[in-house]
Amino acid sequence: MSKNPNYTGGERFNKLSKKDGYRSRAAYKLKQINKVHNLIKQNQNILDIGCAPGSWIQVLKELTKGKASITGIDILPMAKIEGITFLQKDLLEIKDEDLNQLFDLVLSDIAPNLSGIGITDSENMIELLNIEIYLINKYLVKGGSFLAKCFQGSSFDYLKGYMKKNFKEVIRIKPEASRISSKECYLLGKFKE
Ligand SMILES: C[S@@+](CC[C@H](N)C(=O)[O-])C[C@H]1O[C@@H](n2cnc3c(N)ncnc32)[C@H](O)[C@@H]1O
Q: What CATH number does the domain containing 114 carry?
């Protein structure tokens, strides 16, 4: 194994995803999170924000044995996955009429294109989080859960502040498949109040 410390948190899972037939190594992030927190269940309505290329949707279908209603949103096209609803839309332009049901679980792996300029990247992430929060307030059922990517720093603080006020439990998660060197982490809000 490489001595590069990033290897354990990233490249190992790139190889594994090819072997296991997942569209990206992000699949393992969701699998690892779910193994501990047991979020994904059959018969749920699930929204996946920033879903392309689709590995979280592959995991959702696998873990629910196809018995969940799954909606994905991404600005990019996504190769077809049977039995799911895909909206190719910019999240910043999503309209109420685009979503016409409530969700038991909302997942978000969305991130803006990173410029490397800290303050710009944080502002762009917070802009996306504001739309996510709007969707959670409107479309996540009471008692439902919200898992969202953010970055250590102001977007983390912002999302944590929102979740603390609106969920019974808030948990920070850094899955093994997330590069150690990346500020990326996930916040899980369990049981919307
Ligand atoms: C890390 S990838 C998600 C990977 C996905 N979870 C998977 O398992 O395949 C982040 C996604 O967010 C999407 N994204 C970024 N900004 C967006 C926006 N404004 N509206 C919709 N999608 C956006 C990107 O196109 C990208 O596909």
A: 3.40.50.150
